[in-house]
Design goal:
Length: about 100
């Protein structure tokens, strides 16, 4: 995140002064941050996908345990509960204005 704040600062300085002399954008540290940003972004994306999978697994396990503890306490099966979460949140909501 600090890399993107720094990029915003560099863009602001370049836009208003036309020079990168005071920003340090030509330093070795900046180049290292730029090289590491791609792998950092990929790791954040992968972590988000794993988090989504873990959440859906948690929903499935919680319904299964509820059904085992008190049969008839849950209206839907575990599979239908997971699909019931995915349909409105993943398929329908992105198209809302």
């Amino acid at each position: 995140m600090l890399y993107y704040l720094y990029i915003a600062f560099v863009c602001y300085v370049v836009e208003h002064t036309g020079s990168t002399a005071n920003t340090g954008a030509d330093s070795a540290i900046f180049a290292a941050l730029a090289d590491g940003a791609r792998s950092f972004d990929a790791s954040v994306l992968l972590l988000g996908v794993l988090e989504g999978i873990a959440f859906l697994y948690w929903v499935w396990v919680s319904v299964r345990l509820s059904l085992q503890a008190l049969p008839g306490s849950v209206r839907y099966t575990a599979f239908v509960s997971v699909i019931g979460f995915l349909v409105p949140c993943v398929i329908w909501m992105p198209f809302l204005p």
